[in-house]
Amino acid sequence: MHRHLLPTVCAVLFLLSGCALYAQMQMENNAVALSLETAQSRLEAVPIKQKHIRFTSLYLTQTILKTKSDNLLVYENAELDSNHEFRQTVARTLDIVFESFQKKAVASIGGIEAYQIILPKRGVLNVLVQEKGIFNLTLLYGMSNAQLKQMLNPLHAKIAPLIENHVIVLHHPDDAILTKWDVIKVRFYPLVGRIPRPFNGL
């Protein structure tokens, strides 16, 4: 089954027997918010810098935010045009854009997944990721362990034991962005591919 059919399948299953509830992760009112049904968590963080990158079919927005604890978070939103889809699983996409093949899944709730990614020579990076359908992928990273728990606990997420040592906390805007998106990864790996379309008359 093509991945672009999954949202439709889920909608049908929801009508017939009920799909799992889906959470939302978004920036709003100088904060990053997670919500699931009536539960919500907020981590106050003010945008201080934003960068836009276009890879033909993929439009990437990278926003650096400053928290009340004075550390930085990075919120990345990767959006595709209507003719393309993400080809890899979320876990594999993280491997590629962070160029790291060691990670620990620590929580999953309502379509939002939390990982601790081990970056060579840097340490352990806390990451929240959400794939919204086939056209959108959102990342949030740079949280301390305490901030990660602050985001997940109000949603009643089951959190696996966290790696406590060498957790990366970001402080300098110039080197806060840790993903490594490029044309080769997007087009030729590929992270992104054209959605198969049926031939006319078939």
Tally of individual domains? 1
Calculate the mean pLDDT score and round it: 88
Low-pLDDT segments, ≥5 res: 4-18
Proportion of residues in helical segments:
10-25%
How many beta strands in the DSSP annotation? 11
> Beta-sheet strand percentage?
35-45%
Morphology: globular
Question: Please, could you describe this protein's structure?
Answer:
Strand 9 and strand 10 form a beta hairpin. The strands form two sheets. The protein has a nine-stranded antiparallel sheet with strand order 1-2-3-4-5-10-9-8-7, sandwiched between helices. The protein has helices at 6-16, 90-98, 145-152, 183-188; strands at 24-27, 31-36, 39-55, 58-67, 72-80, 84-86, 103-109, 112-119, 123-132, 136-141, 192-194. Residues 4-18 have low confidence and may be disordered. It has one domain. Helices cover 17% and strands 41% of the residues. The chain is of the alpha+beta class and 202 residues long.
Structure described in brief:
The protein is of the alpha+beta class.
